[in-house]
Amino acid sequence: MRNAKCDGLIEAVLEETIPMYGRMIHGRRKAGELYQEPQAYDVHGRFIRAVDRAGLNKRLLDALEKMPNVTFHFNHKLTGADFNKNIAWFEQRSHAPKTDHAQNPTQPSLSKSDQHRAKEIEVTFDFMIGADGAHSAVRYHLMKFSRLNYQQEYIDTLWCEFHIPPIPPLASSPDPSHTFAISPNHLHIWPGGSFMFIAIPSLDRSFTCTLFAPSSTFSSLESSPTTTLAIFFATNFPGVSPELISPTDLLDQFTSNPHLPLISIKCTPYHHASSVVILGDAAHAMVPFYGQGMNAGLEDVRVLFDFLDAHNVYTAHSTLAQRTARAAALEAYTAHRTPDAAAVNDLALRNYTEMRAGVTSPLYKVRKTLEESVDRWVPALG
Q1: Distance of alpha carbon 101 from alpha carbon 121, whole angstroms
Q2: Strand 128-130, strand 276-278: pairing
Q3: 36/190 Cα distance (integer angstroms)
Q4: Which of these, 176, 316, 164, lies nearest to 240 by C-alpha position?
Q5: What is the rounded radius of gyration, in angstroms, for the C-alpha atoms of the chain?
Q6: What is the model's pTM?
Q7: What's the CA gap between 93 and 120, in Å, rounded?
Q8: Kind of pairing, strands 128-130 and 149-164?
Q9: pLDDT at residue 110 in the model
Q10: 303 CB contacts (<8 Å, ≥6 apart)?
């Protein structure tokens, strides 16, 4: 975002984030009392930020709209592409299908005007960047032109979203604002061994929560949620319901919100010749447990343009020279970026085990203490 040279963009985005300095582990002791145990991310006070993706998308769209060389075309679906001739085909629809989640598109009933074949248009292009998510249409068509190695894995975990509301002010309070129900500066985790419940703060002082569990657990809960859900939460996630989410809301959210899978994708190469490259989830969709999926996508953009600049793509004196330089830049980008993205992808998978089970392990706590001591007193050792 800094490299975009949009005045005030990065400052505006950061203003709409909430710093989280560590994890807050929740549980119940053998004596029966609830506990909260903070685990700092960093001995030097560094932190990660919670950000609302919808708000970030709107902020980026607003910044792009101000640029004279950017034009938006919404509700266009890529249906075909020839990356040798640089031609693409799009369907134009009156509205776009909604999605439950970026990784899991759902197709609702179309209006009568969209039930027939939509108008298709042909577009010639110089360079296509596919940032169209885990189920990327650009990647699908790229496979027809590049010898693309592709690996897809659905892990045996589903997820469902919940909501912890903010606490309203007391009638006698002079402050009319709502407050957070729990600490806003932590990622809250209720570890359950083979499953977990997490809560992340939002700017409206609520928390967006997620239940992650094996498909068999969801199947068991779905079979009789009115009798099993409250017991399941009371047993495995003490302090969530009724303390933070009422039993009625808990049941309503579980039955109303979709229960969705998690996909992990690796592929290479990310490009074909000088005509196309894929970024973000289209290139390396990852499970959310490392909290770096969006960051990895943003880093893709920075690294890509570093290579384009290093190969003098935008100072080439002819179209042929520009395409030759861009082909070399994309080749170098794929070679550099593929192992880095694969490493983050693997870390995300491993971190699920740590979050749902490792954070309460005595061995994990000893290791973390040693790591923090080394980082504090001998930082040169890494």
Answers
A1: 27
A2: parallel
A3: 10
A4: 164
A5: 24
A6: 0.88
A7: 9
A8: unpaired
A9: 52
A10: 333, 336, 337
Question: Per-residue pLDDT tens for 195-233?
Answer: 999 999 999 999 999 999 999 999 999 999 999 999 999
Query: Averaged over 100-125, what is the pLDDT?
Result: 66
Nearest to 297 by CA among 186, 183, 132, 92: 132
Alpha-carbon gap, residue 221 to 210, rounded angstroms: 15
